[in-house]
Design goal:
four-stranded mixed β-sheet; alpha/beta; 7 helices; Translation Initiation Factor IF3
Length: about 270
């Protein structure tokens, strides 16, 4: 009796707990898991919404290459080329090589020999492209029957010419930035006036910007109108003695306070 009752109890437990799980298909989901998959599919794409099983598929992590170079780990070695020099500073700031739009030219060859009439095609064909350039140094003048003058330069000559112009422009800019002020009294002594005018000429020849201030001093002799005009005449004579000098500013009245500004384009 005891063995029979134990066998019945095992069979009853087997029918309740084990047999239902064996008969259920493996692809069937539990109600809670199926509900979660359906809820998630509402916020996904159409493909996942049709089949909730897509929500459970494994998706490998994406490799993030876009942010890799922005975290300071690896920086691409990209060299930014320097800006080209201004046209006026280029030693070949004229048409050269294929830019020359002439059929016949007057040519100065690499030996300095002048040829009155040469076909541009022949000149370009004789050119050593690795080391030379053909520059048009003067334009043609059809009315006078003058051909465009061209000359052969080596690239080394052009680089040296560019470096020279660059140094000269840098020096001129530095010199012009340092302006000078010269103060004159209307009743200044002739010897003192000559010393001041000598300094004025020196500064202008150096390419500096010079301001000349003329005024009367208190508790000193007041100059008459003829003396004031003579001072202005001598200042103008000193300025005109330096070629390329121009007057940038003039304000005030004779006999009172006057101010001049001069700059030299050297």
């Amino acid at each position: 009796m005891l063995g029979t009752s134990c066998s019945c109890a095992r069979r009853a437990l087997h029918n309740v707990f084990i047999e239902p799980s064996l008969l259920r298909p493996r692809t069937q989901l539990s109600s809670s898991l199926l509900t979660w998959a359906q809820t998630r599919s509402k916020h996904t794409t159409t493909t996942e919404a049709i089949n909730p099983l897509h929500a459970l598929e494994f998706k490998p992590a994406e490799r993030r290459h876009s942010n890799y170079f922005h975290k300071g780990r690896v920086r691409p070695s990209v060299k930014i080329p320097p800006p080209p020099p201004p046209l006026e500073l280029r030693p070949y700031a004229v048409p050269y090589d294929e830019e020359i739009q002439e059929q016949w030219i007057a040519l100065v060859d690499r030996d300095g020999k002048y040829h009155e009439r040469v076909a541009l095609w022949d000149a370009m064909g004789d050119l050593n492209r690795d080391a030379e350039h053909l520059l048009q140094v003067s334009p043609a003048d059809p009315e006078k029957g003058k051909l465009a003058a061209c000359k052969i330069y080596t690239k080394l000559q052009l680089r040296e010419a560019y470096s020279t112009k660059l140094r000269a422009a840098k020096s001129l800019k530095k010199t012009q930035a340092s302006s000078k002020i010269i103060e004159l009294n209307w009743a200044i002594a002739p010897r003192d006036l000559q010393q001041k005018l000598t300094k004025l000429e020196t500064f202008l020849r150096e390419g500096r910007r010079v301001e000349v201030v003329l005024a009367s001093r208190k508790r000193q002799r007041q100059a008459d109108m003829d003396e004031c005009k003579d001072i202005l005449r001598q200042v103008r004579k000193a300025v005109d003695g330096v070629p390329g000098t121009k007057e940038d500013l003039r304000e005030g009245k004779i006999g009172e306070k006057m101010k001049f500004s001069f700059s030299s384009q050297r």
